[in-house]
Amino acid sequence: MTKQSVKDTQAMLSGMTPVLVAGEFVFCVTSDEDVARLAGPDALAWFREQEGISLILSRGRAAELGFNCDAPMRRIVLEVFSSLEGVGLTAAVASALAARSIPCNMVAAYHHDHVFVPVAMADLALEILLKLQETSSA
Length: 138
Description:
By secondary structure, the protein is an alpha+beta fold. It has a single domain (9-137), classed as VC0802-like (2-Layer Sandwich). The chain is built from 5 helices and 6 strands. The chain has a 6-stranded antiparallel beta sheet. Strand 2 (45-49) and strand 3 form a beta hairpin. The chain is globular. It starts with 8 loop residues before the first helix and ends with a helix. InterPro entries: ACT-like_dom_sf, CASTOR_ACT_dom, DUF2241. Residues 81-129 form the CASTOR ACT domain. Residues 6-74 form the DUF2241 domain.
């Protein structure tokens, strides 16, 4: 059975169900195609940009490959099946976190949005997003 994707902003927010995933991740970049091929199968995500290939790797794998691991992130999955045509979820999440001075990197995948925040701020970020979901449901 296929889940129905949600487009309505209020419905996305009230149904986002943020979950803090175990592990730490590092955003990396390389222009070395061999390193990218080596890291690719282990990457949570990758994106080719003009300046190089951006990768999101587990902190351990990034360290093994010699990447800088000074800015580890935690991942919060927004478990609502947000539509690719939905409007406002990313803005609301980023704004709620920015209001508390929490930087975030948003990655939208086909089914869910993923919020990457600094390790030390992950628990607070989750608390803020749960509160946002609660107030959106009222």
